[in-house]
Amino acid sequence: MTARAGHRLVRAIGGQNLSLLIALGLLIAVIGVQRPNFFLLTNMISIGVSVALLGLVSLAQTVTILSGGLDISIGAVVGLASVTAAIGAATGTAYGVAIGLVTGLAAGLVNGLLILVGRVNPIITTLATFSAFQGLTFIAARGEAIGVADAAFLWLGSGRILGIPFPLLVLVAGAVAFHVLLTYTDIGRGVYAMGGNPAAARLAGIRLPRYTLAIYALAGLVAGLAGVLLTARSGAGVADSGAPNLSLQSITAALLGGCALSGGRGSVAGTVLGVALLGVLQNGLVLLNVPQFYQLVAQGCLLVFAVMIQEYRGFRPLRRLRGPSTTPEEA
Q1: DSSP code of 40?
Q2: How far, rounded to the nearest angstrom, does the alpha carbon of residue 85 sit from its chain's CA centroid?
Q3: How many angstroms separate the CA atoms of 124 and 117, rounded?
């Protein structure tokens, strides 16, 4: 490969994504040397299935972050949709799927309306609804696991098409759809403009209230889909399913993928790589028999690392504008 071809390849991938690819390659190499069974096809498929739900939620989280917001409640919405889908599945597959999706959509609309009508910061709003949705989940489940016996519904979590697990296919389809939406449509350009410079976006004719409502409704709908798949995969709707942890993990994946907390910067490809990095790390820690508590510590450290990278990238342009530091505080 010539230097020019290599330069074009780097530009096509993106500097941030290239760094992630290198980090992912190094992590795979280290784990593979320690545990050769890591490279088994069954283990690779297992990683893909295990990150399918996180991937879907992270794609929705990416859109909210790009718009300058944040959805902390998204994991709790997954748990609530999981329980309501299990309740609906007792009537039939279609009812279970529909109720799960409607639950997620309604939760997303609640977030959007609270942000718009109440004029409350998205972080505060979704932090509050996180607790509310968790409480509703326990109320709906009445503290018990709601089993699902419908075979067609359970197929959504364990079925395969051409040998590929259905949840993994849903993730791939979702990534393509989000990429097209954000890259090739006026809506996507509006989302970037909204997060990059809200005042300029408003002057350009972008109706920010409509965008805000649509973005959080979309996040809720995707979380509802993830909740349906979670119930289908586990065979039950459980209030204490651990789904709320998806909020933190989705933020970590988006930031690792290059999303800026200030909005206006990031990509679907970067988020997918961030999800892959988290999935490989988690799988590797399990194969290396690392206790779960240390796995949580590793995820927390990864989030701090991702935030530090974003802070550094955010301040770098300011340093160029300011020129050389002249005071100890600026140095």
Answers
A1: S
A2: 21
A3: 14
Output the CA–CA distances (angstroms, integers) from residue 121 to 69, 104, 216, 218, 243, in the order listed. 8, 21, 13, 18, 24
Angle between helices 52-66 and 166-184 (to 10 degrees): 20
Q: pLDDT tens for residues 173-215? A: 999 999 999 999 999 999 999 998 889 888 888 889 999 999 9
Distances (CA, A) of 312 to 16, 24, 44, 259, 260: 13, 21, 33, 13, 11
Task: Output phi, psi for 73, to 5 deg.
Answer: -85, -5
pLDDT for 310: 63
113 HSE (CA, 13 A, CB side): 6
Question: Facing residues of 236 across strands?
Answer: 147
Rounded CA gap, 284 and 304, in Å?
Answer: 20
- Tokens for 128, please give them: 């509050």
* Cβ proximity of 72 and 296 under 8 Å: no
DSSP single-letter state for residue 60: H
Q: Model-level pTM?
A: 0.86
Any residues with CB less than 8 A from the CB of 154 and at least 6 apart, and which?
148, 232, 235
Which residues have CB under 8 Å from 149's CB, separation 6+? none
Nearest alpha-carbon partner for 218 in 84, 66, 59: 59
Q: Are strands 160-161 and 164-165 parallel, antiparallel or unpaired?
A: antiparallel
Please say whether the beta carbons of 74 and 246 come within 8 A: yes
Residues 6+ apart with CB under 8 A from 19: none
Specify whether the CB–CB gap between 237 and 82 falls below 8 A.
Answer: yes
Q: What is the pLDDT of residues 27-82, one digit of tens each?
A: 888 888 888 888 888 888 888 888 999 999 999 999 999 999 999 999 999 999 99
- Confirm if 82 and 201 have CB atoms less than 8 A apart: no
Neighbour count for residue 155 (Cβ, 10 Å): 13
Whole-Å CA distances, 327 to 318, 319, 322, 323, 324 = 15, 13, 12, 12, 9
